[in-house]
Predict the 3D structure of the following.
Amino acid sequence: MKPIKIDAYIPTIMETVRKSLENVKACDTKMNLSWDISDLFKAAVKDLLKPRIDITSDALVKMISLVGSCSTELAWHCLIDRPETDHFIVTDLLMYPQEVNGTAVDSNDEKYPIWLNSIDDATFERMKGQGHSHVNMQSTPSAADTTFYQKLLTNIRDYYIFFIMNKRQEIWVNLYDVQNNLIYEEKDIVLSFVDSAGNDIDLWTAEQLDFIEKTPLGQKKIEIPTFNTQVERKNNDFEYTRSERVSYAGVPLTVYGTELPEIAWTPAERTAHQNRQRELQFEEYGSNGRYNGYFSGYRD
Ligand SMILES: [Zn+2]
C-alpha cells in the first residue's frame, strides 16, 4: 500500500529535514539525508482492512476469452459495483475504440470520445476500471502503464481499479482509492471469483476437492466394468441393433452410439474388458459362426 500523491506528506518530510539541519556542526561540509518514505504513511494505513474485489464468472470468462483470442495487446473498461466501502464487484467488460501497435494499446483519439458519449449515464457511473492484455508477457505494469494510470486518474474523484492479464491467465490488480490518496497493491487486496449468485468459486472448488480420495499406490480398489447389452431387431429381418450400456463402478459411461470415454484401465480391468469383448464377439457371430447382428457405435 502506498500513497497516490506524496503532497500530503511534504510538511512531515520538511520537518525531518529541519531537525537534521539542527544537528549540523560548523565543521560539516556535507550532509546526507536518507530514509524510507513508506515509514511516513505506515501509521496511517496500519488499521485499514483489505478491500475485496470480486470478478463475476461472466466478466472473468470474457476477460479470458478476449486475452486468449488476440495476439496483440488489447484493453477494456470494467463495469464495477461497490455494495460496501471495501467491497467491489466487476460484473462486465466493455471494449472501446482503440489502436494497437506491437506491445502498446491506446484509445482511438477520434472515436473514443464519440464512443464515450454513446454510453448512458448509469453505465458511465459504473465504468470504474480498466484492464489490458500483456499477451505472453508477465502481467505486471510497465513504466508506460504506470504513467497512463496516473494520467487517467486526474479525472477520477473516488476510485479506479486496474487489471492486467496475460494468456497464462495471470491477473495483476491495483485499486486506486483516490478519495483517500491510497494505492492498494496486489498483496493488499483479496481477489475472488464469484458465480452469478455471488458465491465464491474458490470456496466451491475447495468443497468439490473433498470428493477426491487419495488411495496409496498399490492399494487401488479394482472395479470391474459391467456391461449390459440389449439387442433390438429392426423391421428388416436380417438387421439388428444393439444398445450397449457400460458402467464403471456403478456409473454409466456410455450408451449406444456414443464414444466410450477414456478410462485409465488397470491390467485386471483391461482383461475383464477384453474377455467381455470376446463374449460379445461370440454373441455376434453365434456358435455356428453366422453373423446374426448389426453392431456399431461401440469402441474399445
Ligand atoms: Zn501494459
Remarks:
- Residues 52-209 form a domain with the Cytidine Deaminase; domain 2 fold (CATH 3.40.140.10).
- The CA atoms of residues 173 and 186 lie 6 Å apart.
